[in-house]
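Appendix B. Chain record.
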Amino acid sequence: MNTFFCADACRKADEDIIGSGTNYSVYILIECPYPWEYNAFESRFLPKNLEILMTEVNRAKLSLRFLLITQNQNYRQNNRKILIYEKEQSSFINGYKKYEFDVDHPEKIAPIIQKYLAGDNLDTKTQNPRTRDILVCTHGSHDKCCAKYGNPFYTEAKKTISQLGLKNTRIWKASHFGGHRFAPTIIDFPDGRYYGLLNQESFQAILLRTENIELLNRVYRGWGILPTCIQVLERELIFRHGWEWFEYKINLLNLEINSDKTLIKAQLGVLKPDGYQYICQAKLVKDETKTIHLKGSCDASKQSEFIKYYVNHLSFKIENKTSEKMLINSQKKVS
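Structure tokens predicted for this chain:
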């Protein structure tokens, strides 16, 4: 009997989980009751026309991720909700724009998605921008750690949200979105930030954006609007600015990666809510002490290398209305 659990191996190795928040321009979340198959979109309650559409989308290799979601496996088998999260279309962004739809039959899901993909106008009344949607991977048929850690976490997280009185926060069970070994793992929309190895204390801090910001050093996987290789840079900026960073917008201006992926140069524009702007220039170096070889899932046949980086150099050029320029150099290794 295989008793290996990838999430236990991750904890034992004390893996730094930053740089694992996958990057997509669009997420399409489709409500679907259990049971879910290993390949979620072969599940029994999904219609054929949706399967055909997904095959076409996958063939086109769009930067798009389909996920199944549910809140109660025995409820709403025909009535379904569709959430589309689309990366903001502007130079400075801090998350995703949401479209939300309700249909009374699964066969109506695919036509709505086709309309969106074709660029047709969507009914703006279906948008619900104020609601926060948190996805917890509970896809146990895909990886057993998501059942072992994801399901109990989801149950307790629902209680936490209720006890805090967060009226505009919804939590969903979700199909596989990567990072089994970080279970319990979540995506927080509309931000598009990934977290893992969570407990209720760290989850509450994320919900309220309070407590010591350094706790993110353990549970933050990265911001999905950025390439994974520079997500450690954004974490460093979080630690410098505190929770107020979550109100800032960014613009990736330049990214250079050398051939063996040991050195990265990045330039990031930052926009504060008051209109103040600066440019962050960074050099990231492969961290040989944290780069790790592990099985990425419970069923993996062999170990994979997971490259980690540290911020070797930071400089900031502040640009405001008076064209003031200031350079701040930092030579430090992120702990």
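Further analysis of this model is presented in Appendix C.
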